[in-house]
Every structure is written in C-alpha cells, then in structure tokens.
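thread: overnight batch results

M.L. [08:02]
morning all. the overnight job finished for the chain we discussed friday. pasting input first so we're all looking at the same thing
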Amino acid sequence: MIDVAKRSAVKSIKVGERPRGIGFLPDGSRAYVAAENSDRVYVIDCGRAEVIAVIAAGKRANGIAVRPDGKVVFVSNGGDASVSAIDVASGKITATVSVGQRPWNMALTPDGKKLYVANGRSNSVSVIDAEAMTPLRDIPVGEAPWGVVVR
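M.L. [08:03]
and the structure it wrote out:
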C-alpha cells in the first residue's frame, strides 16, 4: 500500500505466488488480486490492509475485472481457457465460461453487460454476456493480445 501524500510505501500485503491482476470494488473497500501460480484470488480489506478471504480460482488465475455495480468480480483462468464470475456477497464462484487459449486481461462495457477477454494464444478476443455468463462470439485480432480497453 502506498501513502500518496507521502509518496512512500507504507505496507506490503502477502498474497499467493506471482500476483497478476488486481481490481477494486467501486467504493474502494476491497481489492481482488489474482495469483497466477497459486490458482487463487485474494480478497484484501483496504481499510484494514489485510487479506480477508482466499477464493480458489481456475488454473493460472490472471486478470481481474470488476462489474461497475461492484456485485461481481471476474477472473481469467489462463491455464483453463476460461473466465469465472465471483459473487462479491458470498465470495463464491457462481459461473465459469470457456473462452480462447490463455485468457489474460479483460474489460467490461460501462454498463457492465458485456465482458471482453484477450486470449493471448488464440489471437482473439472473446465477448461474454456478463449477466447471463454465456459466450457471445470470438473476434479474431492480431498476434498474442494481452489486454482490452472498452470506451
């Protein structure tokens, strides 16, 4: 954690091996960190600056995206070619959708209805209905996409 006013680190929070993606709830109360070599998502209480929950994810958990309403957190599972939805209230995975090979980073539309997933080894971007958790289509793109931006 960084104290912005002081421009210095004030605390380190241990999570699993090879932390990758991080996403924050809209109110800033929690951070969700995907640890790729641990296959887990670590939930951090930002006020207390400590891990409050650990959620088993798919193989090689990587990217994190948070729905704008803060009710669902998505995690890409690079080794399983899938994306899982975590219900924030229960802390449980409620759905998993297959996507292309080695999904990395993701982005949601501003209304939270569609999730775009960069599939690095499939050279594609998967589009998922983020409410129904169903695949809509795959879009061929350039070589090894790593991330997505939605405006």
